[in-house]
């Protein structure tokens, strides 16, 4: 495990934005995570853990502590329909592997960038499916105590882009078991996953420098606005929420540019780095969007993307150093 100083973070994010980490290391299992925390404690540094970098905006100043990036992650079929996977594995790869093995249930998540751990933490979802629905259990490291615990699905409190792990940033997801359907035709599953990926690409270029949808879809109970959405889109709102992209369009901000940051023309909930954008430009654009939506529609948008290194999040993420090695030695190493 290699600790490097002054490592630019932009490269590790899909936004391609962010200054340097004071200290940086890649970790692929829980013991490496623990080593990272020990080093941070010795150097009196705050720690931040991330993985795929597809739902994060690092500040232009970077992070004044140790960044640990979870990489890799094992994949094992335990018994019919039960799959064990390490948190650092790419979600998109997991989808393909399961499809190839005739295991169904993940196809609609095809094409979502990032890691399995990140997807569990944010309950990533698309096309009416979400990660939490197929999770059987999750193993997580409590970075305050160094203990690893297994959480059954009911304990994970999955909701719309919500989970226990999001509410408790001191918990780092190490691995998970997914309960999937069996006996499906692999070819049909792969075809379905591929058509989902194509549909995503049609909605928005997936290679653009962005973090996907910047805002969560807000709860909107105003019947006048809901009726307008029905008329405009020809769709029924799925639940109490309306799409943030549609709302941003209503206030005329599609295509709005600040510096090199742009509200996407294609999908106004995407904020795109058109090349060389700074985090400051993105945040200025974000605050314009939030303010206009609040002033004109009385709706408070909330960022889905995690802002890191801007000062206000540091207390939350200033995890205490681990005092003991995790007690449960039986948990599966992430990298196997
Ligand atoms: C083009 C594009 C399309 C997208 N489409 C979708 C979509 O359809 N649906 C959707 O839900 N999201 C979408 N996203 C957002 C993103 O891909 C998901 O939120 C993804 O699950 C984030 O995973 P990550 O590993 O990249 O997380 P990161 O960006 O690395 O981290 C995000 C947050 O998760 C935390 N985290 C990461 N790993 C762990 C872990 N192991 N344990 C605890 N916390 C952890 C980090 O601390 C951070 O707070 C999209 C993003 C892009 C760029």
Task: Provide a quick synopsis of the model.
The protein has 336 residues and is of the alpha+beta class.
Note the quaternary state here: single chain
Structural class by sheet pairing and helices: alpha+beta
CATH fold name of the largest domain, please?
Uridine Diphospho-n-acetylenolpyruvylglucosamine Reductase, domain 3
The first-level CATH class of the largest domain is given as: Alpha Beta
Specify the biggest β-sheet.
Answer: 5 strands, antiparallel
Low-confidence stretches: 314-336
The tally of helices reads: 9
Question: Whole-Å distance between the termini?
Answer: 16 Å
Quick one: how many beta strands?
A: 16
Bound molecules: flavin-adenine dinucleotide
Overall, the morphology is globular
What would you note in describing this structure?
This protein has 3 domains: 75 residues, Uridine Diphospho-n-acetylenolpyruvylglucosamine Reductase, domain 2; 116 residues, Uridine Diphospho-n-acetylenolpyruvylglucosamine Reductase, domain 3 (2-Layer Sandwich); 92 residues, Uridine Diphospho-n-acetylenolpyruvylglucosamine Reductase, domain 1. It is built from 9 helices and 16 strands. The strands form 5 sheets. The protein has a 5-stranded antiparallel beta sheet with strand order 6-7-12-10-11. Helix 2 runs antiparallel to helix 5. The two termini are 16 Å apart. The C terminus is likely disordered. Flavin-adenine dinucleotide binds next to strand 3, helix 3, strand 8 and strand 12.
